[in-house]
Design goal:
Layout (H helix, E strand, L loop, with lengths): L2 E6 L2 E2 L4 H15 L2 E7 L1 E2 L6 E3 L8 H8 L9 H25 L3 E5 L8 H14 L3 E4 L16 H7 L7 E5 L2 H11 L4 E2 L20 H4 L7 E5 L9 H11 L4 E5 L9 H13 L2 E4 L9 E2 L5 E2 L2 H4 L5 E4 L8 H8 L4 E4 L2 H7 L8 E2 L5 H12 L1 H18 L2 H16 L4
Parallel strand pairs: 1-3, 1-6, 2-4, 3-5, 6-7, 7-8, 8-9, 10-11, 10-15, 11-12, 15-16, 16-17
Antiparallel strand pairs: 13-14
Length: 420
């Protein structure tokens, strides 16, 4: 018999990690006859299964007003406390309505009790759980103590209360081992480790009529060698290493293609990269204006492609990040059977590398051995094929839907008990 499960967050829309992983969870749960419903401040799910509460979005004016007065401060005014509680009280009523409307038996909180982008929502959820004792799962992607911006704040009491709360009916899930240990040390809470996953059991999509001529449409020649940096342009992505790689390889046919925009943390870093590429003789192409969440036409009548449309036309992927919570771009490259350069960020070194992937691996700087390995992966078709097929097999074993399926079965069994 099917049961209804509710997903709760500030946003389920677009291609951010929380939205993508939540959709994967819902797909696997559907295979187990659980119907998913969605609560958030911004939603792109089907209307019949969505409960949109604009006040729950982190960019709602009231929440922005609160955030301006609690971060980077060591105290808060009484009016801020009142407005946090007032907003939390309102959001709590919407949670009751959400659960009652869809007859929900289990709730899954996606990062809403993890990173305090919306303190009133976290408080509302915590009180709602204390009042209802509804069985729940908190899926944690990145904790507040992992971000410098939250280190100075005027809400230590709310952070201790709600991010995450200590509740007997709430199971905790983290995406890496370091987060598991920190949660235990800071909060005394045990957790299940479920890594981000991909549907490796289903082959990647192939080019179709829409993507015919994609290279030419984006301004590339057929014999250009496309090196993709599939990330936003922010300093922690280490894109200067990708530029250095192409400079060292020294092939004018190589183009460094960045798929996402800058601006999340200002444009200074992007301007620095553009100057560095120019001085290094590297052809840098930022194509975020032609890459979107959906296939469509822009105001000029040009095709907008998805990132997945682009992957089959790419020759190599660079991912020299300084830090990642997990690394979805790595799994995407493996899924599309592309070789990839990795900077050994801490989560990769601990949670991913030991699984046995074969990748050019740098430790903060490029070595001759790493560059030679990249050159061979681009030039030696046999070596390339052996490498990417090996990586696909490893990922299918450790990061496929079957892993998620087993883990979710354990969590649901903890809630429902062993059925006859």
């Amino acid at each position: 018999m099917s049961e209804n499960i509710g997903f709760v967050s500030t946003r389920f829309a677009g291609t951010d990690g929380v939205s993508l992983e939540s959709a994967k969870w819902a797909k696997v749960l559907w295979d187990h006859e659980f119907r998913s419903f969605w609560y958030a401040g911004r939603l792109d799910r089907a209307p019949e299964v969505s409960y949109c509460v604009p006040e729950a979005h982190f960019e709602h004016p009231e929440n922005v007003w609160i955030n301006e007065r609690i971060w980077g401060k060591t105290f808060r005014d009484p009016i801020v406390s009142r407005r946090i509680r007032d907003m939390a009280e309102y959001l709590k009523t919407t949670l009751y309505e959400f659960v009652n409307r869809y007859d929900l038996r289990i709730l899954i909180f996606q990062n809403a009790l993890t990173i305090p982008m919306h303190v009133p929502l976290g408080v509302a959820i915590t009180e709602f759980l204390a009042e209802t004792r509804i069985p729940s799962i908190a899926h944690h992607h990145d904790f507040y103590w992992e971000r410098v911006r939250f280190s100075v704040n005027g809400v230590p009491d709310f952070l201790d209360m709600a991010f995450p709360p200590r509740d007997d009916e709430l199971q905790h899930v983290v995406i890496n081992q370091a987060a598991r240990e920190e949660l235990s040390w800071r909060k005394g809470l045990s957790s299940e480790l479920i890594p981000n996953v991909f549907d490796f059991e289903t082959p990647p999509p192939q080019p179709d009529e829409y993507t015919k001529g994609l290279r030419a449409d984006l301004g590339f020649a057929e014999d250009d060698i496309l090196i993709l940096q599939p990330t936003r342009i922010v300093p922690r992505k280490g894109i200067e290493h990708s530029i250095k790689l192409l400079e060292t390889l020294g092939d004018p046919k190589m183009k460094l293609v960045i798929s996402h925009a800058g601006g999340d943390e200002g444009y200074e870093y992007q301007h620095m990269l553009e100057e560095l590429a120019h001085d290094s003789g590297v052809d840098l192409r930022i194509i975020d204006d032609r890459i979107g969440e959906f296939r469509q036409k822009n105001s000029k009548g040009q095709k907008i492609y998805t990132l997945w449309d682009l992957y089959p036309f790419v020759d190599f992927v660079t991912y020299p990040s300084l830090y990642e919570g997990f690394g979805n771009a790595f799994l995407e490259a493996v899924y599309f059977k592309l070789p990839i350069l990795i900077n050994r960020y801490s989560i990769f070194a601990r949670d991913i590398e030991p699984k046995g992937f074969r990748v050019p691996l740098m430790d903060g700087y490029l070595t001759k051995e790493v560059v030679d390995d990249v050159r061979r992966l681009l030039a030696d078709e046999g070596y390339r094929k052996t490498t990417v097929e090996h990586n696909y097999a490893v990922a299918n074993r450790f990061f496929s839907y079957s892993v998620l399926r087993r883990s979710l079965r354990t969590l649901i069994t903890n809630i429902k008990g062993l059925e006859p």
